[in-house]
Design brief:
single chain, binds zinc ion, eight-stranded mixed beta sheet, binds adenosine monophosphate, 273 residues, binds fe (iii) ion, 8 strands, alpha/beta
């Protein structure tokens, strides 16, 4: 049973349409796939339609941009009510924050002698709910400034790099509450990737469990084997669900192929019944 619970379509910063995502998931031999675009459920409808015409089981999800003690943390939410007003309002704030920082990002790039405008970025995000850094990266690739998205982040767009601009993110505890109140389940996405390892300690994860956290994405390419062992232990001790997933972004992220990490059937059952 091949289960992949974290993938992106072009409704956020992946490169496949939801329809192509489902087709590629089938071709990769997945039996269950979750669509988890950043801060948006816009891809659900098309993915559902595509999945109905195939044998694959679709899990409807989202990856919410949150903040925990000043650090960026991503929260996966599954099978919640997408019309829930308080949740939609919060997601709207995150999407607005992503769009509204774009002028400042472009200003920083101009200061470095790189001239791209909002329309260049818009062309790379026509299907997306908001314009994010990966779309800026695509414009930089098109201009020939960098070879790929990774190089764009490495040189310009990561925190600490010259074109990085902060944006609004939801409070982590609040986001868990919003997804739970909307009838969904919550899983910490790649909790020990980049800067978040420092804040997501065992005791902090225990506190999140008290406010309704359901699981931890242990198996993810951002985690080495030591991280995975540490997170697996915390997951067991706290009685959380252990998931694994690809974080597929189509051609936008190299080495994150569909099914490269997977979730077991019994863990999926614990999470979603
Ligand atoms: P944004 O939400 O606009 O701040 O963009 C964040 C998205 O950019 C993340 O969800 C990832 O898909 C991607 N990303 C963030 N950091 C990196 C990085 N260092 N290298 C490549 N992609 C990244
Ligand atoms: Zn992404
Ligand atoms: Fe993420
Ligand atoms: Fe992701």
């Amino acid at each position: 049973m091949t289960i992949d619970l974290h993938t992106h379509s072009n409704r956020s910063d992946g490169t496949d349409s939801p329809l192509e995502l489902i087709a590629n998931a089938v071709a990769a031999g997945l039996e269950v796939v979750a669509i988890t675009d950043h801060d948006s459920t816009e891809g659900w409808r098309e993915a559902e339609k595509a999945a109905r015409h195939s044998d694959i089981q679709l899990v409807k999800g989202i990856e919410i941009s949150t903040r925990c003690d000043g650090r960026s943390v991503h929260l996966l939410g599954y099978e919640f009510d997408p019309t829930n007003r308080p949740l939609l309002d919060e997601l709207g704030k995150v999407l607005d924050g992503r769009n509204s920082r774009l002028p400042a990002t472009l200003e920083r790039l101009r200061g470095l002698g790189i001239d791209i405008d909002a329309n260049d970025v818009r062309r790379h995000s026509v299907n997306a709910a908001a314009m994010g850094r990966p779309h800026v990266a695509d414009a930089l690739v098109e201009l020939g400034v960098v070879a790929n998205r990774d190089e764009a982040f490495e040189r310009y767009l990561m925190p600490g790099k010259p074109a990085y601009v902060d944006r609004y993110a939801a409070d982590l505890e609040q986001a868990i509450g919003l997804v739970k109140d909307a009838g969904g389940k919550t899983v910490l996405a790649h909790p020990w990737s980049r800067g978040s390892k420092r804040v997501l300690t065992r005791s902090r994860i225990a506190a999140l469990t008290d406010v309704g956290l359901d699981g931890i994405e242990v198996d993810h390419n951002d985690h080495d084997s030591e991280d995975r062992a540490g997170l697996a232990q915390i997951t067991r001790e706290l009685g959380l669900v252990r998931t694994g997933s690809s974080d597929y972004h189509g051609t936008g992220k190299i080495g994150f192929d569909l099914g490269c990490n997977t979730t077991s059937r019994d863990q999926l059952h614990r999470l979603l019944g």
